Amino acid sequence: KKWVYFFANGQAEGKAEMKELLGGKGANLAEMTNLGIPVPPGFTISTEVCKYYYDHEKTYPETLKQEVDEALKKLESVTGKKLGDPNNPLLVSVRSGAAVSMPGMMDTILNLGLNDETVEGLAKLTNNKRFAYDAYRRFLQMFGDTALGIPHAEFEKALEARKEAKGVKLDVELDADDLKALVEDYKEIYKKHGKEFPQDAYKQLWAAIDAVFGSWMNERAIKYRQINNIKEGELLGTAVNIVTMVFGNMGEDSGTGVCFTRDPNTGEKKPYGEFLQNAQGEDVVAGIRTPVPLEELKKFNESVYNELLNIMEKLEKHYKDMQDIEFTIEKGKLYLLQTRNGKRTSQAAIKIAVDLVHENLIDKETAVMRVRPEDIEKVLHAKFDENELKNVKVIAKGLPASPGAATGKVYFDAAKAEEKTAEGEKVILVRPETSPEDVGGMNAAEGILTARGGMTSHAAVVARGMGKPAVVGAEEIVVDENALEFRVNGVTVKEGDWISIDGTTGNVYLGKITTVKPQGLEGPVAELLSWADEIRRLGVRTNADIPRDAKVARDFGAEGIGLCRTEHMFFEKDRIPKVRRMIVAKTKEQREAALEELLPLQKEDFKGLFRTMKGLPVTIRLIDPPLHEFLPNDEEQMKEVAEQIGISVDELKSVVEQLHELNPMLGHRGCRLTITYPEIAVMQTKAIISAAIELKKEEGIDVIPEIMIPLVGHINELKYVKKVVVETADSLIKDANIDLTYKVGTMIEIPRAAITADQIAQEAEFFSFGTNDLTQMTFGFSRDDVGKFLPEYLEKGILEHDPFKSLDWEGVGQLVKLGTERGKSTRNDLKVGVCGEHGGDPRSILFFDAAGLDYVSCSPYRVPVARLAAAQATI
Ligand code: ADP
Ligand code: MG
Ligand code: MG
Questions:
Q1: Alpha carbon of 55 to those of 18, 48, 207, 508: distances in Å?
Q2: What is the mean pLDDT of the chain?
Q3: In the chain, which end has fewer C-beta atoms inside a 10 angstrom radius, N or C?
Q4: Whole-model pTM above 0.90?
């Protein structure tokens, strides 16, 4: 087995495709060498050695030493230098590098090979004693720190002391003798820690190799892999690159820098980077001296500048992606020390992917795969001004429930929030948790903050639907509605105080922060998404209850409404009394009278929706929540409401009591309501069908309403309600003497419905998986209570994902798959969609595509994300 790969002078044993084996850095050093780009010669010890090292109690494969010795000999021969030779010493860097870039997480040692003798040799050869001793003291420092674990700070202290003694501020003001004395100080530090600095260069080399392999398991690196979701065993380990040193600190004709082939912030096609004259690599990163913009290099050495620009272009064409490059200039000669695909902002990721297609470097599929769904989401939401963010304090952290940044004055009451907004104030609505009655205030507010609730709590779902930033479940916050303040970690925030919330991170800040407008669906994002549309198979619809949301979704590319929740329309101020009268009605006649008043209002709602959607399919779900949600539950409100609807407080109380359920989510809701009160289904059907008829007659808009019956578990439930719907609809259509098609279908959200989907499809003309309820009932997890235990489940690794956020493939997903198959086996043109929160989640969309669904439906602001994710699912 081969463990070591050599590269020098235009020829390398490795290549870019060998990333896994040689790490990103090693593979690209090899590739650049083969491309004829100037790279200092060296060799790479493979990642397999790292794996061996940890599998065998930190020992190496038998033949490794021999291979390293051979590579070292070759290196000595191509450089004409010798490791440890006082007259002509070979100096190397020993650098880590895994297959996935983990910038700065592992160790690198520079200037290895220096000792008391070779430092003198280097001084003579370069005729620069100061340089030689500077290199030596840097090596002592890095070696002591990384290979022997002596705290970095001790060396810094000694350096500071030397500068102080001499009365200077900058490192460069120390001369050769000062640095030589500093070397002795450093050696004392070694002694103080009971360590010895190995004068033998060969021993140094192996100690450095040990250190780099050791750094694979250091805390920082482990943490980095955790945060970035790199699983144990996914990578073999780190490689070790041994590279001949080139010196950017040999004088004014030398320097070092970092550059990107395009602007990593904006994506603009123009070289971007920084450069530092007379410096060694770490100086740039360590921020000790301030580097100058790359263009300055042109003044300093135009031919090197042009050479670098040529290489940047060559590398970008070769790798077909934006490159992040490290370079060093030694006495006017340019060397490349690293190249990799550069990290970039979301905005830049999109622009670069689109530009590369226009430049014929990549195809549309590749561009679509290069952009992460989060990138789309990020560019569509407002962000805080980065500079201001540095000066404000995070006072609490909650769940990042609905992305975007918002700033405003705190109000605790939804009605007041509406009022203040109308007066032109910016408002953040702060609630212990929200209920349907807060919707008006939520809509008016810039953003929403709640102390309780999870990712699918009312506040979270509604906020996402509205595209409003929201932070929910910020448990440390104590909301005191009476005192009109909230308290958190020793801070008291009063009504009218400014706060800012970031629904992308979950951070809550004290004070006002300027928000920066999103760029919207134009330019590169729009173009990229149009390619996604060409590629994807899944349709993308939206969940929208009102024309404004529907309009937003259409502008974002929605191809229809997959879920209109009719009950949301009932919560409006002027309607809720009518709804309540309907609920407290004692007789069918009374109820019908109340419904009669609601009918024209609902009809107008639907006309608005149909008009906005201009003939695209619109799925409308009949009433779903338990009726008690429409009634007040505290004493004070009871009085008000009783008065409003003209009954006594006692009567109202007794209705509320009657409606009380121990387990409302499994109680009297969904189709169970319309089975008890068919007149509600009649009214809603009338509203839907007559809206469609009127639009067709008056405005010539063709609508195909899809009426959806929720919470069906048994085919007979569907049969019963469907009959009511069909009789009502057909008689209206007949009276209108018009041709109108409509469909009746059902939600599949109860496990029994998924299992008996073949039967249900006999009645249902379409399915829509309600994966929120389906997840709740399949796991038996109450959506509203998961906050109590789910975080621990995730922490302890019992579940990998929050199943309410990202579909549980093995369980709930199987029901979706089975339900789809069984449904389509009965009715092969059955349209099947999904309308839970999962409809906008990329990982879930991957599954829905494979399961053969026809479309996903998600909140308006997730429509662009879903378009991209659906395309990625097919590639
Ligand atoms: P990281 O992975 O943390 O970027 P590197 O291995 O790239 O670590 O090393 C950090 C810096 O050290 C490089 O950017 C470069 O400037 C400098 N460096 C590494 N090897 C050499 C070398 N052979 N000659 C000169 N400078 C080097
Ligand atoms: Mg680097
Ligand atoms: Mg449901």
A1: 22, 10, 19, 45
A2: 92
A3: N
A4: no
